[in-house]
Structure formats: structure tokens, C-alpha cells
Write a structure and sequence with these properties.
Distance between the termini: 65 Å
Shape: globular
Strand content: 35-45%
Number of domains: 2
Length: 468
């Protein structure tokens, strides 16, 4: 007679069941280690040996069972080799802020040179290598910066920036000819406008722009066609003096259904740092759980596999939620007392975030479950702490496309762009993109289209767009 865990001579008693549970627990620990890490390490071997010892102790059987095969990492990708795509675009300014790809066209936006009538703040390219300024810029006198851009997959582009006292939203049906939405209706009070747009996104059939209203409170505006916009209902909080409390939003995303989450900085404690909507972005509420604590800020938010993840600056800099309203701090210490700038989910079970740790190392972190985070390896964006006055480095943006993770930011020795095939082990790219860019502002954004990568940033008043 054989029991359920493979040895002969007696039936399954209560102690047998206990022993079986011990074996299964040890084996599960082994399997989870391999799943999380993707390869064998000394600790993995130690866990497996523990499983073997438990098996031998319980069964008295010296035969070594075959361990489960380890999950192999993807093979290393060919190193991207970056070269200057445009030395003149945004020349004479502090560079480009964002880039996006859609329908065969890259579009980049940023700051025009001092002579805004001569130099454009939006450029486009059909191959990522040769770039041209847009024409017909009637909005030029009302915009100081265009700092975010997105494509809806159906022929429409939307950009946002700093528009002063007018709504800072632009739209285009081809990426080259742009119109300003300065006739947008204003929310209450009547003189208020979304004067600064920090992020614009498209999802679930709707455009969403977030930023700061001209009376310095959190601002959100939405549209279904990019030309007609409305202001949803936001939570209203009045300070003891009777004035609306200040605030700003930096990012927004959707689960593809009716839920939306926006992150930023509020002034009524941590819960005001995240807003959420469960009715298609018509009505918004403050999140629960005190995310990013009082005085902290949320900078980026992403959704995937039924979870939301937000990164920012606080003692606990990574937070997660399964319902958009209730938030918990992640474990692992990612960017603790530092700043997380960007987070992405690859659609396959891996989360990656970039930023700056409190010790200016461990600037890329990853997670397979959104709640527990581990530092990536490879030294991406690490600071040389041996220097008398260390140069502060950080990751600014991370993307996943074409089976490759790519992160841009400010690194040492012109190492401003890094890549990884699994999100865990990182290596710097070739080409020295952005050269001796301004500290903390070298690479700012990156996009992939067809067979080309394009990255934008500040190359030191020139060399602001690179391609690979």
C-alpha cells in the first residue's frame, strides 16, 4: 500500500498528513523562488536542499526526487545602439519633454527656443531619424511648454502643456497640424481653466488630461472627440480660512473599463494624493489608505492584472490597490525616502518602476505581484558614492515594447539609456545618447514604432532627439 506522498508500509495517519503538508510547503517555497527570480542562485539551492532534507526525514527514502525545471530568462537582447536623430530640434532650449508613436509617425514635444516664432515646440518624423517642425502654430503666443502627448490609435493626437490663463490642450488629426482648445468651457468658478496639463492619455473611448487649474487646484478635463472637453466633478475641500486647497495631478490611467485613477499632490493628507473614479471619470473621490502620506506626491500610476500601482515620493514610495479606492504600501523598500518616477506593467506578469532611491542606488525595481518589490541588477543609473560630492542620478521613464524593457534618465558617464530583456538584469545601451546632458534631465521619454526606438530629452541645448 502506498500513501499519497510516495512511501510504503502504512496508511495515512494524522501525522502523515502533517508530514505531507511539510513537504508541500517546502516544495512550494522552492517553486515560488524559481518563479520570482527566473534562475538558480545560492539561496535557491539552499531552499531546494531544505526540500530534499524534509523529504528524506519524513519518508526515510534517500532517493533524490527530480526538482521542477527552473523558469529560464529570455536571452539577452541585442544592445541598442543610439545615434543623434536631430541636432536642431528644440535647439537652444532645455529640450524635449515627451514623444509618442502612432499610425507611422513619431511626434515629440517640448520647449521652443527663445525665438518661438522661429523654433517649434512640436516636431514629427515618419521614421524616427529625420525630424521636421510643425507649421501653423497659431497657439504659439499662449503656450510656453508642450510637455505631454498621446495618440488614440484612431487618427487623433492630443498634447498638453502650459497655457497660462487658457486651457492648455492641443489636438491634431495627423500629428502635423495642431489646433488649440482655448474655447473649452470652464469649470466653477467661471474664471478657472486647466492652465497646466502634466499628462494626457486615451483609454476606454475617452481622452483624459490632468494637471493644475489656473486657481492652483487639482485639474481634470475629459473628452470623447479631442475637440469638445468637459470638467468632471472633483471632491471639494475647503481650508479653515475658506479657500480651496491647492493641489496638482501628474498622471492618470484607466483599467479599460469604467475605473480611472489619477495621482499627484494634495494638501489634506495622503488620501488626497490619489483620486479615483468608478463611473467612467464623471465623478471622482479621494483614495483610502493615506497613500504617499501627508506631504508626499504621486508621480506615475499603471494598471495591470487586476491591480493598480502608483509610485512617487514618500517614506513608502510604492503603493498598490485591487479596487482603485483602497491602497496599501508595497513591501521591499523600493525608493524608500526617495522618488519613483515611472511604473509600467508588461501584460505578462512583470511590473517595473524607475526613479531614485534614497541612497541614489537601486534606481530600478521589479515585482511579479505588485505588492512585493525587489531591486534590479546591473547598476542602472547608480550614483558613484565614492565621490566627495556624488552626482545625483535617477531613472525618469520606463517602457516595455517589442519584448524589451527600456529606461531613460540621468546616469553617469553618458549612460542615460538602459535596457533589459526580463526587467531584472539591466545593461547600458551603446551610443552615449544625450551626452553630457543637464544633471537629472538627460533622457525624459521614449517610444517604439515599427522597428525604431526614439528617445527625447536634454542633450545640453542640442542633440535632444535620439534613435536606435
Amino acid at each position: 500500500m502506498s500513501t499519497s506522498f510516495g512511501y510504503k508500509g502504512k496508511g495515512a495517519s494524522s501525522s502523515d498528513v502533517t508530514n505531507m503538508i511539510r513537504i508541500r510547503a517546502a516544495a512550494a517555497n522552492w517553486s515560488q523562488n524559481i518563479k520570482d527570480k527566473g534562475s538558480l542562485s545560492s539561496s535557491d539551492i539552499s531552499v531546494f536542499q531544505q526540500t530534499l532534507n524534509t523529504y528524506a526525514e519524513v519518508t526515510g527514502n534517500p532517493i533524490t526526487p527530480t526538482p521542477p525545471p527552473p523558469t529560464t530568462r529570455p536571452p539577452p537582447a541585442t544592445k541598442l545602439d543610439w545615434s543623434v536623430a536631430s541636432a536642431d530640434a528644440f535647439s537652444g532650449s532645455s529640450g524635449a519633454h515627451a514623444v509618442a508613436y502612432g499610425d507611422g509617425t513619431f511626434v515629440a514635444c517640448g520647449i521652443a527656443a527663445v525665438d518661438k516664432d522661429t523654433y517649434a515646440d512640436i516636431y514629427y518624423s515618419t521614421n524616427g531619424v529625420n525630424w521636421s517642425p510643425i507649421t501653423g502654430r497659431d497657439y504659439v503666443d499662449r503656450f510656453s511648454i508642450v510637455n505631454t502627448i498621446a495618440y488614440d490609435g484612431n487618427g487623433t493626437w492630443v498634447a498638453g502643456g502650459h497655457g497660462g490663463v487658457l486651457n492648455a490642450v492641443l489636438y491634431s488629426t495627423n500629428g502635423t497640424d495642431w489646433l488649440e482648445n482655448y474655447t473649452l468651457p470652464a469649470p466653477s468658478p467661471p474664471n478657472n481653466r486647466l492652465g497646466t496639463v502634466n499628462k494626457v492619455v486615451y483609454g476606454n473611448g475617452k481622452w483624459m488630461a490632468v494637471g493644475v487649474q489656473t486657481i492652483q487646484i487639482m485639474g481634470i478635463t475629459a473628452s470623447t472627440n479631442a475637440s469638445e472637453w468637459s470638467f468632471p466633478v472633483l471632491p471639494v475641500v475647503i481650508s479653515p480660512s475658506g479657500d480651496s486647497l491647492n493641489g496638482k495631478l501628474y498622471d492618470v490611467t484607466t483599467d479599460g473599463n469604467n475605473k480611472w485613477v489619477a495621482v499627484g499632490k494634495g494638501n489634506i493628507g495622503g488620501s488626497s494624493n490619489i483620486l479615483y473614479s468608478i463611473d467612467g471619470a464623471n465623478n471622482w473621490s479621494y483614495a483610502l489608505g493615506n497613500p504617499f502620506e501627508s506631504g508626499g506626491t504621486g508621480y506615475s500610476v499603471a494598471y495591470g492584472d487586476g491591480k493598480w500601482v502608483a509610485v512617487g515620493s514618500a517614506t513608502e514610495s510604492v503603493w498598490y490597490s485591487s479596487n482603485a479606492s483602497d491602497w496599501l504600501p508595497a513591501t521591499g523598500g523600493a525608493f524608500s525616502n526617495g522618488r519613483g518616477n515611472s511604473v509600467v506593467y508588461d501584460g505578462k506578469g512583470m511590473w517595473v518602476a524607475v526613479g531614485s532611491g534614497s541612497n541614489h542606488t537601486s534606481n530600478i525595481w521589479y515585482s511579479s505581484n505588485a505588492s512585493n518589490w525587489l531591486p534590479a541588477t546591473g547598476g542602472a543609473f547608480d550614483t558613484d558614492l565614492t565621490l566627495f560630492k556624488p552626482i545625483i542620478t535617477s531613472g525618469k521613464k520606463v517602457v516595455y515594447s517589442n519584448s524589451l524593457w527600456v529606461a531613460v534618465g540621468f546616469g553617469l558617464s553618458n549612460q542615460h539609456i538602459w535596457q533589459s530583456s526580463d526587467g531584472i538584469v539591466w545593461s547600458n545601451c551603446s551610443g552615449g545618447a544625450f551626452g553630457e546632458g543637464a544633471q537629472d534631465e538627460a533622457g525624459r521619454d521614449i517610444a517604439y514604432g515599427r522597428t525604431t526606438w526614439a528617445s527625447v530629452g536634454d542633450g545640453g541645448f542640442s542633440n535632444t532627439i535620439w534613435s536606435a
